[in-house]
Write a structure and sequence with these properties.
Elements: E1 2-6, E2 9-15, H1 24-28, H2 32-39, H3 43-64, E3 90-97, E4 100-107, E5 112-118, H4 122-126, H5 140-153, E6 165-168, E7 177-181, E8 189-194, E9 200-206
Antiparallel strand pairs: 1-2, 2-4, 3-4, 5-9, 6-7, 7-8, 8-9
Length: 207
Amino acid sequence: MGQITWREATVAWARVSELSEFTEADVVAMGQAQLDRFRQLSGDRAQGFLAGRALIRALVQSIRGPGQVLIDSCCHRCGGEHDRPRTADVSLSVSHSGDLVAVAIAAGTVRLGVDIEAQSAADRVSELGSLFGDGAAPDLAGWTRLEAAVKADGRGLEVDPSAVIMHDGPRDVHPRVWSAALPGDVTRIEVATLSGPPGHVLSVALG
């Protein structure tokens, strides 16, 4: 497991296989809806769900102290349990890449997004160039920044990725920070690519 902090956000990551002690019994404490969602999954997706919830519980308890961590992931549009996880008094974002899961957390209500991709996914990302029309398609790091910004925005797939404009910040600041302008949103979201797990690219967005 690894962890890094950027501004008010903390990002932790771990191998799914290393969080196997978090079980269905632990999900029960997070609420019936979470248990129902878990039981609809199987194989790697089920294990990834458990790993993500294990990291969420650990990070939330690091802020709030020991105690129950109830999760709500109800979609405001359709009522299904597939939206981003939410819990009281903190902001959350989750990303999966193969056997890795990453969770970003910040105290209070902020716009927060995280995205992690294996460096081996660079070819797959390059195939998404058609989404950007005549505009320049991002490289792998640029794609993770875009994904993190869209997650922080909260509209997800409703946002056309080619409509997101990344304004480059000062190059002498580490980590380098981009300012993301999303359609229909006058408030900028700041994004940085951080030093994450080896072999992966990790970006986090705050708004």
